[in-house]
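Quick bug: IDD protein output formatted oddly.
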Amino acid sequence: GKENVDSRHNRGRGGETTRFHTVSVAQPVRFSRKCPTGWHHYEGTASCYRVYLNGENYWDAVQTCQRVNGSLATFTADQELRFILAQEWDLEEKTFVRKDQRRFWVGYQYVITNRNHSLEGHWEVAYKGSSEVFLPPDPIFGTAMFENENVLCAQLQCFHFPTLRHHGLHSWYAENCYEKSSFLCKRSQTCVDIKDNIVDEGYYFTPKGNDPCLSCTCHNGEPEMCVAALCERPQGCQQYRKDPKECCKFTCLDP
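Here's what came back:
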């Protein structure tokens, strides 16, 4: 509402004075992205993605993703994969591959069915999820394979150079699951409050934005059924500043 409220008097029935307070109409709210800090949001799948740089074997990477309510990433469409390849993941020197080539564990495994003349097999989704997940093409086989291993784990290789990255150039590797590598986690979009806390389904929260007096319900990662509080201006203070993250909290700027 307006900070300066107009008070108007009107003569009602019986001669009594009726007070009207005019307030501005609420404006539509544009909410910010629905991912925690450090995650990349993709609207097409309503999902969040994050690369973890600490080198872990496949099974440890799986557990790390699960601890943040996610899983190793799988892809439902070519557009989603292109989104992943186009991102700059803020990678550092401690990655475990060449600087111009990045490899990440992702959520597929290659099951070997025949070792006679060449390695024959097929891809599977490591942890069953959406039935719409697509499977990678034939892989490049890694250098650290063991002869008695019949299950290999998927690494997605993308490229650091912008021209290669934006053309979607990439490769799929089937690698020994106990090799250490960076990895890509994927989780559903979520509600994130104004202080960057993750909000569980069904709970009230104040979404990120410019209105700390907004209260919404978290539903499928979206703020819904929002209501806003209106604050009176601080008494006895001519100049003041609103706190951007606390509702109805002001700092008086008077001398």
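Actually, after a second look the formatting is fine. The radius of gyration is 27 Å. Closing.
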